[in-house]
Fold this sequence. Notes:
The chain is mainly beta. It has 2 helices and 8 strands. It starts with a helix and ends with a strand.
Amino acid sequence: MTYAREIGEVALRGDAWTWWDQAEGLYERSHRPRAGATMVFRKRGRSLGHLAVVTRVVGDRIIVADHANWLNRREIHRATPIIDVSPNNGWSAVQVWYTPGGQWGTSTYPVYGFIHPTRLASS
């Protein structure tokens, strides 16, 4: 989570899955990706969620993002493609490119949405 805070413009702390609720009233949140937004993955199993910073929107269903500590390898992953596999293009479920295998990962991950670096006027 430190990496997303270092490279992104969203200044929140704590477990990744808590960022979505923390951002309410402070930052713009949406279910549409934009460059600079932080994607917030939900808790799943023993995972406390995950964060990825969008670097590029490729199309309606594909983005490229930077993130760290994926697959418990404590590595930084840059320019990682992520595809929306949710019904109706809602960005509530994604698959992440599996770099070692050179293919889309087979797991589907639930996502809250995107926190945009735009601070709300009331904050």
